[in-house]
Write a structure and sequence with these properties.
The complex is a heterodimer of chains A (about 250) and B (about 400). Chain A is of the alpha/beta class and about 250 residues long. Chain A has helices spanning about 50-65, 75-90, 115-130, 135-140, 155-160, 165-175, 205-210, 230, 235-250; strands spanning about 1-5, 30, 70-75, 95-100, 190-195, 215-225. Chain A contains 9 helices and 6 strands, in the order E-E-H-E-H-E-H-H-H-H-E-H-E-H-H. A 6-stranded parallel beta sheet of chain A has the order 2-1-3-4-5-6, with helices on both faces. In chain B, helix 6 runs parallel beside helix 7 (about 220-240) and helix 7 crosses helix 8. The chains are: A alpha/beta (about 250), B alpha+beta (about 400). Chains A and B meet through helix 3 of A and helix 5, strand 3 and helix 6 of B.
């Protein structure tokens, strides 16, 4: 099982969920380049100017670790990153779990994504105001050393902290992406975990994803907000477990 | 502290009695609200309602705190704020915009704590909300200033590069019966204009001048002197056939100009004669060129005085016949003085290297630059300029 975090934070988003699958699965966690404790020098604006760049990274991880029958669990934007990866190399993936997916955040000619283009500028401003004190205080801690993986204070300090330029670029790439046409390209069992009252990925968007993907089912969680992996790890893990239980029957 | 007698004591007691728990909460100098772990507002103080312009009945039990934020703020809340709070139990100094009851935006700074029960279940989030209107305006100015500074910096380096390109001919002109090649590498990342320059130009039929030089210092001031040196030498070369005389002219011009910068120059005048060329070399404080023939590589010329320092200079012309197959290598001090830790690249490596390079000026110049860069692990600490002049053997 490969767990991928979304825009904003890092692999710690999965710390209440991923360990529960360690008994039955090989669990792979990673930080997207630019986030968490990834090697910032690997950040290449051109490569990461579309979600495909991130999807290519996922495929590279699969190759490097020689992963097969992958259950890819993607939160938020990583749901679409998983869709792109699975569309690229379907033979590697057994199934997809999409937590709070949205193929298009911006409203568009009858499609309701939940946001207007101007809202994304507003988000970028929000990011900017919250990064004023970043470079001086946080840079040495975060830009840190991938070679020293000890957890603890250093890690928690860096959670949800990203280099401002990277964060702003990732925000643009994420919230301006349109992967609606890619949904149909994935023909493997897919679980959509849909939160109640999620402003980022509303129920109508989850239903859209379900209807577009040939083999998708949707589970409506009681959890509210956009991060059930943090706010309702029990419910989230149980839904994934039930799905994994069902999947062999579908294969 | 101590409180005295009479009025002061009375005032102290009045204030103490008036400032009860209710007042402390309702009229705290910040908005204060409590929500369920999913954000639904369960309680808020008067200051919060005054700040936001909502009525208690509009909010309590009805909306989540995130619902009051601007759309971008809502995304930020979901992707940063809420995860931070879940993970750390606190989130501090988060900048958000609350959309007030009248639609106006109120910039706020927010601190939150997540309270858990003994089993670790989240129970309540308490949030303090501070009006940050003026601070945000100040921060926006800071940001604008930072953006302007970054733009200026980008402009400056673009200007530096453009300037550099006008001072360095990208490839030397093609000269019949003579093979000339050059390499140039500015120090560091190349964003600062260096002081090294070279020039190759024709002065008469079958008569050419090759110049290489190094103006002390870097940046725009040095670039101005570089341009002055280059055009002075071009003009002097047309009037004076002696390279030493041309360098004297440059020395006078530099002394007469306002600059205090000095420079070193190697000036080579080449005349076609017989099967080969005849070179006349004058050095103004510049590292000695390398002459390469069948017997090997040797340094030629006498260094001479620096230019632009003293009115009296000692400069001389040296005649060097260049037969087919022979070469002359000019370079700046970025070559011998390249350093790896405490050790210098040194001239001996140059002599050794060029004696063994192939039959093209381009190979020679390229080999020198590559070797010097490799010696410094790819990072040039000083500008490097190299010009190779070779009389083709099969001409």
């Amino acid at each position: 099982m490969v767990f991928a975090h979304g825009f904003g934070c890092d692999q710690n988003m999965w710390r209440y969920v991923a360990p529960r699958f360690e008994a039955d699965h090989r669990v792979v966690l990673f930080d997207h380049v630019g986030a968490g404790r990834s090697d910032l020098s690997a950040y290449d604006r051109r490569r990461y100017s579309t979600l495909q760049g991130y999807a290519d990274d996922v495929l590279e991880i699969c190759v490097a670790l020689d992963l097969h029958d992958v259950v890819f669990v993607g939160h938020s934007v990583s749901a679409m990153i998983g869709v792109l990866a699975a569309a690229g190399e379907p033979e590697r993936f057994a199934s997809l779990v999409l937590v709070g997916p949205s193929p298009r955040y911006i409203n568009d000619d009858g499609y309701v994504g939940g946001f207007e283009a101007a809202d994304i500028d507003d988000l970028l401003q929000s990011l900017e105001s919250n990064y004023l004190g970043w470079s001086a205080a946080m840079a040495p801690i975060i830009m840190g050393r991938p070679d020293q993986p000890e957890l603890g204070q250093e890690l928690t300090e860096s959670f949800c902290r990203t280099d401002p330029d990277v964060a702003s670029h990732f925000a643009r790439v994420t919230f301006l992406s349109d992967n609606r046409a890619d949904l149909r390209r994935v023909d493997i069992p897919t679980l959509i975990l849909q939160c109640s009252d999620d402003v980022i990925a509303p129920v109508s968007v989850g239903e859209f994803v379900r209807d577009q993907m040939p083999r998708a089912t949707m589970v409506q969680l009681e959890a509210t907000g956009h991060c059930p992996n943090l706010s309702a790890p029990d419910e989230t893990a149980a839904a994934i477990e039930a799905f994994l239980h069902r999947v062999p029957a579908q294969l | 502290m101590t409180v005295g007698q009479g009025d002061a004591l009375e005032g102290f007691i009045d204030a103490l009695l008036d400032d009860n728990a209710g007042q402390l909460y309702e009229r705290a100098p910040c908005g204060y609200l409590s929500t369920t772990p999913d954000g639904t507002i369960i309680k808020a103080n008067e200051t919060f309602f005054t700040l936001t312009g909502y009525r208690r009945e509009d909010l309590v039990g009805r909306v989540r705190f995130a619902d009051l934020l601007s759309p971008g703020g809502q995304i930020y809340h979901e992707t940063h704020y809420a995860p931070l709070l879940r993970m750390h139990g606190t989130a501090r100094e988060i900048a958000l915009d609350v959309v007030r009851g009248d639609g106006q935006r109120l910039p706020v700074l927010v601190n939150s704590v997540l309270e858990r029960d003994e089993q670790g279940h989240a129970i309540v989030i308490r949030t303090a909300v501070f009006d940050a209107t003026q601070r945000r305006e100040y921060e926006r100015e800071l940001l604008r200033a930072k953006q302007r500074a970054e733009e200026s910096e980008a402009n400056a380096s673009r200007l530096a590069r453009t300037l550099q390109q006008t001072l360095i001919p990208p490839t030397p002109p093609a000269i019949p019966h003579l093979d000339v090649a050059a390499r140039y590498r500015p120090a560091g990342d190349g964003s600062v204009v260096g002081g090294d320059f070279f020039d190759v130009f024709q002065v008469a039929t079958a008569e050419w001048v090759v110049v290489i030089g190094d103006v002390c210092g870097k940046g725009v001031d040095a670039a101005v002197v570089t341009a002055l040196a280059r055009y002075t030498l071009r003009a002097a070369a047309m009037q004076q056939s002696s390279p030493a005389a041309a360098l004297v002219t440059l020395n006078d011009v530099l002394l007469a100009s306002e600059t205090e910068r000095f420079c070193t120059v190697a000036f080579v005048r080449l005349r076609r004669g017989g099967d080969g060329w005849h070179a006349t070399v004058a050095l103004g404080g510049h590292p000695r060129p390398v002459h390469v023939d069948d017997a090997g590589a040797t340094l030629v010329g006498t260094p001479g005085s620096l230019l632009g320092v003293l009115p009296d200079v000692e400069l001389s012309d040296l005649e060097i016949p260049l037969e087919p197959g022979e070469s002359l290598l000019l370079y700046t001090d970025g070559v011998p003085e390249a350093r790896d830790g405490g050790s210098f690249y040194g001239i001996d490596r140059v002599l050794h290297l060029v004696a063994g390079t192939g039959s093209k000026a381009d190979q020679m110049a390229g080999a020198v630059l590559d070797d010097v860069l490799a010696f410094q692990h790819g990072v040039a600490r000083d500008d490097i300029a190299v010009v190779a002049i070779r009389v083709p053997a099969d001409d």
